[in-house]
Structure formats: C-alpha cells, structure tokens
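In the design runs reported in the main text, the only information available to the sequence generator was the tokenized backbone. The following block is the verbatim input for one such run; it is reproduced so that readers can re-run the procedure and compare outputs position by position.
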C-alpha cells in the first residue's frame, strides 16, 4: 500500500507498506526517515527530537547529501548541499509483489537551486522496499556544460549501544580523518570509543555492521568511498536535533562519492549511486 500522508503541521510524506516491510519518505529531500521489516524494530535511527519542518533536514534516516558533501567553500550555502531541504516531486509507486514495492521521487533544477548551483540537472531517487532496502540516486546532467558532484546517502543506523558495535570490510582501506585532516590506513575492524568522522576510499566490497549478534550488510554501487561517523559525547552536545545521549544509539555508514571519489558528468551524462541494506 502506498499512501500520501501529512503530519498535523502539514509536513508531507509517503508511506509504503507491504508484507515484508514499511518505509516513510518525506517529500522534502525525498528523505527516507523510517524503515522497518515486518515485526522488527526500525533498522534506521531517527532522533526523538528531530524537526519535521520545511527548510530543516530531518535528523536521522537517510538524508541525501547532494550536489556537494560536507561544507561548501561559500559558507553561506547549506552543508551537505540543498537536495535534502528541497521539495521533491513524487513520480510513481509500484506494488511489484506482495513483499516488494518501489517508489520514485524527482528533483529538477529551479530558480532556488540555480541561485545556489548554476547547473541544470535532474535528480531521481528510486527506492525498492522489501526484506532488503535499496536506494538508487541518479544524477543526470541536462546542462550544456560538464559539472562535478560529491554526494552521500547519509544513513543513520539504529544500534543497541555503540559499545556493542563493530564494522567489518574496511580493513587496510585508506581514509581521511575529518577530525585531524590526516590520511590514515584502517587496521582491522572499526570499534567506537571516541568521536569518529572518516571518509574511506578505495572501498570495493560489502560492509558489515555488527551489533552484538545482529549483522547488517551494506552493498554499494557507483561508489568507492564510505563515510563512517559517530559524534561521541562532546560533538553530540553541539549537534542540532539530538539528545545528549544520542551518540549511544546510532552510527552513520554513508554510501558516498566524496573527496577523491568526486564524479564529473559531461553534458547528457548520468551517474547512479546505489546503496542496498541487507
Ligand atoms: O557525515 C559526517 C558529517 O559530515 C559530520 O561531520 C557531521 O557534520 C554530520 O555529517 C552531520 O551533518 P549535518 O549537516 O546533518 O548536521
């Protein structure tokens, strides 16, 4: 079932339910903020104190960072780009079978976006909802000039306790430590006992988030970079729309094209970033 819903304050979202799972996706940012398999806890983290209002990104789920990841050199422009705070349009929804549905959203350049980024583009998000969750973010250059993008599906995973968590699959991968701006090499699994904000490069395999005896597998396509982030104690206090203890209950593993993995699109070209959560 695919229904168009509104919160009491008028904030619009699409709800998709089938035999296998359910999602909620806001029209602002095509922001998927809820995914749960039937009879299971939500797999994604959503802040209890998140805003659901226009112009402010929801805190949690899968914010779409596009057409730049991180800060823009022109600091008056929004961090992580404008896609996640723009109103997208709902293109279509399909009930593929009783356990699989798909929905598609689109954002095309407009007066607002052209003021921030002068290129003409079409951006599409295609989501497949089943026992697995797949997000496909397709950028098409409809300008007559080439442009470059950096981007991320900035996924917040819900965890039982950050001390129970480890990440496999990034061993021996180089990463930029965003806290020190130093290039490092990953040694073994990643565990969390301090702030972690890293952009891994040369990523070409599956990533496994282990939380006690539960495993979440993440597969990426069209991407060689992955961001791993947990703000830990002090940074959480400075983050908007987060309770002080939020760092205990989430971890971001972001399928990206960030830093060295920047993508250049010629006029008429497309690039698709795919993340599948299994
Ligand atoms: O992806 C990690 C990161 O770049 C962190 O440095 C932190 O800023 C996080 O994104 C959240 O950014 P936001 O703009 O959503 O508050």
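Verbatim output:
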């Amino acid at each position: 079932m695919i229904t168009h819903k509104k919160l009491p304050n008028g904030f619009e979202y699409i709800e998709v339910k089938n035999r296998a799972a359910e999602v909620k996706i806001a029209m602002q940012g095509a922001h998927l903020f809820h995914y749960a398999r039937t009879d299971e806890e939500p797999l994604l983290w959503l802040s209890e104190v998140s805003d659901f209002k226009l112009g402010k990104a929801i805190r949690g789920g899968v914010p779409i960072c596009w057409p730049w990841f991180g800060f823009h050199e022109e600091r008056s422009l929004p961090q992580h780009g404008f896609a996640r705070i723009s109103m997208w349009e709902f293109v279509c929804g399909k009930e593929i079978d009783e356990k699989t549905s798909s929905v598609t959203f689109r954002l095309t350049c407009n007066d607002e976006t052209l003021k921030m980024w002068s290129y003409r583009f079409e951006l599409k998000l295609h989501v497949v909802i089943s026992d697995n969750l797949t997000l496909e973010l397709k950028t098409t250059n409809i300008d007559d000039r080439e442009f470059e993008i950096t981007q991320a599906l900035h996924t917040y995973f819900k965890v039982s306790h950050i001390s129970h968590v480890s990440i496999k699959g990034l061993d021996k991968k180089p990463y930029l430590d965003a806290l020190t701006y130093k290039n490092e090499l990953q040694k073994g699994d990643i565990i969390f006992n301090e702030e972690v904000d890293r952009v891994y490069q040369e990523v070409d395999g599956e990533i496994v988030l282990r939380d006690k005896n539960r495993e979440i597998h993440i597969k990426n396509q069209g991407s060689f970079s992955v961001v791993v982030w947990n703000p830990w104690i002090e940074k959480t206090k400075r983050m908007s729309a987060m309770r002080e203890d939020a760092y205990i209950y989430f971890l971001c593993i972001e399928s990206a094209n960030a830093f060295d993995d920047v993508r250049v699109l010629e006029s008429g070209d497309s690039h698709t970033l795919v993340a599948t959560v299994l």
